[in-house]
Specification:
Layout (H helix, E strand, L loop, with lengths): L1 E5 L6 H10 L3 E6 L10 E4 L5 H8 L4 E4 L9 H18 L4 E7 L9 H14 L5 E6 L2 E2 L4 H12 L2 E4 L6 E2 L2 E2 H12 L8 E4 L5 E2 H12 L4 E4 L5 H11 L4 H10 L11 H4 L7 H16 L2
Parallel strand pairs: 1-2, 1-4, 2-3, 4-5, 5-6, 6-11, 7-10, 8-13
Antiparallel strand pairs: 9-12
Helix pairs in contact: 1-6, 2-3, 3-4, 5-7, 7-11, 8-9
């Protein structure tokens, strides 16, 4: 199958492209900088904010992966909706059979954050022109280079003691990056997955506080945490940007979402793509190993 990957140079895309190629698919890696692309597949120019470029990028493809979002932009919700709509219409015009999208976990009946509401809008916009969309909804993805994982790691490594907001008590269901990629590749060839949304997560449901403590234990670091209920989202994002290398706007978007419980409600994906996902500890150790390897000369 000839598959376009929008977001080929990102955190998930750099792992997905070689996995798709290994599975026998012809990969078209969409990027704004094809000359400098060094990943798996053939680099093709495309920008989700440039409609004409999308028509050329999707031409001749059978399916596409959409791994794009704009958390660092203050107007990310409008930009992401407009980009998703343009991509969906380009895919429909080119006759694509399927779009696979990586979205976010969260209960639709909850008061979802702006970030998570945006993820739901993108799901709808991608399918607006009629191409069936398969959505995988994930919480924190644990892997070297992922923003949410980096927040966790850097907080533990930079602060032996921390005053934290109340979102540290929110439950989440983290998943290893390798397992997300395995699900993304697996659903492509399954007709029953077309037009459906699936929750994906690892076996552990944890509070953010417990995630921090387990990382500290694995790394052999001391960690004293004192939750403070009155620490506002704005102050939390400023605090995160001061302690980590995540910018304030991205930090604010993530902090807002941390008020929402993000756990798997429907595990039907386990029947369609059966395997045993990594535990949180296994995912953390793998992410730390990959970071150590990346730092070697």
């Amino acid at each position: 199958m000839r598959v376009l990957v929008a977001g080929s140079s990102g955190f998930v895309g750099t792992r997905l492209c070689p996995a798709l190629a290994a599975a026998g698919h012809e990969v078209q890696a969409m990027t704004r900088h094809p000359r400098s692309y060094r990943g798996a597949g053939e680099a093709v120019y495309g920008d989700v904010h440039d409609g004409p470029s999308l028509a050329a990028a999707v031409e001749g493809c059978d399916a596409a992966y959409y791994l794009v979002h704009s958390l660092a932009d203050a107007d990310f919700r409008r930009r992401d909706a407009r980009a998703a709509r343009a991509f969906g219409y380009a895919a429909a015009k080119a006759g694509l059979q399927r779009i696979v999208y990586l979205g976010g976990l969260g209960d639709d009946e909850d008061d979802l954050s702006e970030h998570l509401r945006s993820r739901r809008e993108v799901e709808r916009m991608l399918g607006e022109a009629g191409v069936p969309v398969t959505t995988l909804r994930a919480g924190i993805i644990v892997g070297h280079g992922g923003i949410s994982w980096e927040l966790t790691r850097q907080l533990v490594e930079h602060l032996p003691a921390m005053i934290t907001p109340r979102w540290v008590r929110t439950k989440t269901q983290p998943i290893a990056l390798d397992d997300v990629v395995r699900y993304l590749v697996g659903v492509l060839d399954i007709p029953e997955a077309a037009g459906r949304a699936f929750d994906v997560g690892g076996p552990d449901v944890l509070e953010y506080l417990e995630m921090l403590r387990r990382v500290a234990k694995i790394e052999g670091r001391p960690l004293l945490v004192v939750p403070v209920p009155l620490l506002t989202p704005r102050l939390s994002s400023l605090w995160l940007s001061a302690i980590t290398d995540v910018d304030t706007q991205t930090g604010r978007s993530l902090v807002d979402s941390m008020a929402n419980e993000v756990v798997v409600r429907d595990d039907s994906i386990r029947t369609l793509v059966p395997f045993e996902p990594m535990t949180y500890e296994q995912a953390v150790r793998q992410a730390l190993d990959e970071r150590a390897q990346a730092k070697r000369p």
